[in-house]
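Course assignment 3, question 2. Fill in each field.
Student: A.L.
Task: Predict the tertiary structure for the chain below.
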Amino acid sequence: MRTLKSAIIIVCCYLWPWHQLYAATEVIAADYLETSPHRELIELALNLTAAEYGPVVLTFSGVMVQGRAEQELKEGKRLHLAVFAPSPERERDLLPVYFPLSQGLLGYRVCIIAYGQQSRFDLINSLQGWRNADLSIGQATHWPDVTILRHNNITVVTNPIYTLLFEMVRQQRFDCFARSLDELNRDLQSAHATDLVAEQQLLLHYPQLSMIFVSRSFPQLAERLDKGLALAWQRGLVQQHFQRHYGDFIEKTRCQQRRIIKLENPSLSEQSRQALQKYALPPEQLLAKPTQACPS
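Answer field:
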């Protein structure tokens, strides 16, 4: 009888959907997502798929920079997911979820500059004008943007520690700390931004997206997030999230009527490009005529 019971249990285990056996009660994300608007979309995707995959709780790791988070995901032991811009290496070594969490805002860049340096940017109208002015951009060493900017023949100064970039631009060790439209307000409000301001005239743009990367140790989690985000988009929940978190700032950017400097992104994969085409805001829509009166 005991042998028969054991056989029944084994058979049931094989017949039961594997992803339900896999379902974890905890999903561990990189620490910086705890206060990010992306957290809301990740939790939404997990909740919308709970009936199929089971309930989970999103928790967060200890403090880590992007490079460390990427390595932890490759090891597949202590971290389930993080959010990065894509690169060929990340798409090869991790499981990408091809969904632009901020509808492509990561590729729209405004310079954080030292106070009193605005005049250096006022007469620039093109990428060639930027190059002729020999303006440099600061970025973290491990960010994919470094490759993009250098491909466009822009001088880039790097540092592995994100917070030190604020001090470097303050000391004018480079001219522009290029930050995306979904990062700019947060950075200017941080304690590191003393005597730093947003440049007023220009908007750098290259196709880029913030997307979830999952450790290869957890393939069903990547599948689940992909399904959940697609469902959230179909129900209009992603669009509501975008308007709630970024709508006012987009209107302000439209009112500023910035001059766009378009850059190429040579590293963008076809899957990322298709995700941007499907879900992201193109420049002509993002920078359309303001829907409300602009302050005089």
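Instructor remarks: Confidence is low (pLDDT under 50) at residues 1-23. The chain has two domains: 2-102+210-256, 105-205.
Grade: pending
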